[in-house]
Amino acid sequence: LTLPLMSYGGSAILMNLVALAVVLRVDYENKLLMRGSGKLPTTRKRGERA
Fold first, then answer.
1. Whole-prediction pTM value?
2. DSSP for 28-43?
């Protein structure tokens, strides 16, 4: 199976698809975390302890 137009910027397209897949995976993981906990993830403020 050959990739179409690889000699015309195909490697850039491939890297863009990989980057898109990473972004979509991070979004998917965040949605799973929010669904499981019932609230948005929060960050601690500077100087605050756990």
1. 0.54
2. HHHHHHHHHHSS----
d(CA 8, CA 3): 11
Q: Cβ contacts of residue 30 below 8 Å, gap of 6+?
A: 41
CA distance to 32, 40, 43, 49, 50, per residue, from 46 (Å): 27, 19, 9, 9, 11
Which residues, 6 or more positions from 4, have their beta carbon under 8 angstroms from its beta carbon? 10
DSSP 3-state assignment of 37? helix
| pLDDT tens digits, 8-38 | 666 777 888 889 999 999 999 998 888 876 5
Measured at the CA of 47, the angle between CA 44 and CA 50, to 5 degrees, comes to 50
